[in-house]
Design a protein that fits this description.
Chain lengths: ~325, ~80
């Protein structure tokens, strides 16, 4: 029961919830950048939440579905079409054998998650089907989806009714401007008090260099560093540190100019100071930011970060309940 | 009123030239054939060509070179 890939947009990859447990070896967790959207799409079509689906960036693929299947598209507003007829996002719809799933222009957000009943059944590697192209792991022979590929589907999806839909108030997407909450970290003291204030006061914009590894931001004032003699093995630039581990969501600012937030395909360590970490509750949102989106970093403490995580879990639980 | 609007399928930065030191792909008044490249959109460290999806005469570029573009935004008008 395969899917035939006619076109693949600009970057369509197979993603599930990733392969945690190997980051200490340099292999990132990977998986859907917007985890809530992938989970919701899977639930809509009767799959396990962690089944593999497709993550399409900005442009949707064109797929021939060769057997009857239920499909759902969540995350970015990338309007799906079946044989040219429009369908709703965040809603389960039936596709009959031989029909073609395609997409209209992106309306908002950046990444659409396409779940198909049964889930994509490529061979898991290190416990996951997620594509980590740099390491040639998962996906289709370690790479993104390409035209001419045949994607196998599993079976075992629960029956779902066409039209099953995630209630509006539980859908999560980006606004015209974004707020990312940041918890200052171990190297916060490396920048001056003025720089600490400027970082949160300035409006940044998502740069074109924004992908699964990290999101770069531009447009704020250059951060000034507190003078010091560089410690042993640290590089000469004041933004350099003795090599350290990079957490997911950590914000490094090479030379103090353009903050980079590491995402699901992060590198696991290196020699740039990190001023803090974007909280886990806001990581999905980053995956939905288009280039040039105005972005404000908002300082939070650990208590608010944990409350935000709790709220995020509650939203996901409400989606599970609404779709059960 | 233009007869046809060519839209960018992706968000990013729009360029009218293949490279900074080269002339623009097309100028206003040029004849355009379906499939002609009208510009580039840079996103995620790569450049994507935007091609005409109809024949016509180039009436206007409603967007400046090196300006941000949204998905679905018109980058060229054809008569």
């Amino acid at each position: 029961m395969p899917i035939n890939v006619i076109s693949a947009g600009i970057a369509t990859t197979i993603q599930d919830l990733g392969r945690p447990g190997y980051y200490h070896l340099g292999i990132p967790m990977g998986g859907a950048m917007d985890r809530l959207a992938l989970r919701a799409a899977n639930l809509l079509v009767g799959n396990d939440e962690g089944a593999a689906g497709l993550e399409s960036v900005f442009v949707g693929p064109e797929l021939e579905i060769t057997e009857d299947a239920m499909v759902a598209v969540c995350g970015a507003e990338l309007p799906p079409k079946v044989d040219g007829e429009p369908r709703e996002t965040w809603t389960a719809f039936q596709v009959r054998a031989g029909q073609v799933l395609s997409f209209d222009f992106l309306q908002s957000g950046a990444r659409a998650y396409i779940a198909i009943s049964g889930g994509i059944n490529t061979p898991p590697m290190l416990g996951s089907r997620s594509t980590y192209a740099i390491g040639a792991l998962g996906g289709v022979n370690g790479r993104a989806v390409q035209p001419g590929d045949t994607l196998p589907l599993g079976n075992g999806a629960d029956a779902r009714k066409e039209g099953l839909s995630v209630p509006q108030k539980l859908r999560r997407g980006p606004g015209n401007a974004a707020e990312l909450r940041v918890l200052p970290g171990l190297y916060w003291h490396r920048i001056t008090e003025a720089a600490q204030q400027n970082f949160f006061a300035d409006t940044w914009k998502v740069a074109n260099e924004a992908d699964r590894m990290g999101y770069r931001f531009q447009g704020g004032r250059t951060l000034e560093f507190v003078e010091r003699e560089q410690p042993f093995s640290a590089g000469a630039d004041p933004s350099n540190i003795t090599d350290a581990c990079y957490p997911y969501g950590s914000v490094q600012v090479p030379s103090g100019t353009e903050p980079i937030v590491l995402h699901r395909d992060a590198v696991s360590g290196g020699g740039y100071f990190m001023l803090g970490t974007v909280i886990s509750a806001d990581m999905d949102l980053i995956g939905q930011l288009q280039p040039h989106t105005p972005t404000q970093f908002v300082r939070v403490d650990m208590d608010s970060a944990l409350t935000a995580r709790h709220d995020r879990t509650a939203t996901m639980n409400a989606i599970r309940e609404a779709l059960s | 009123m233009a007869n046809h609007e060519v839209k960018s399928p992706i968000p990013g930065t729009f360029y009218r030239k293949p490279a900074p030191d080269q002339p623009p792909y097309k100028e206003v008044g040029d004849q355009v054939v379906k499939g002609d490249t009208l510009g580039l959109v840079e996103v995620m460290k790569t450049f994507h060509e935007v091609r005409a999806d109809a024949d016509g005469t180039l009436a206007a570029f409603p967007i400046e070179d090196a300006e941000p573009v949204m998905a679905g935004q018109t980058i060229a008008e054809l008569d």
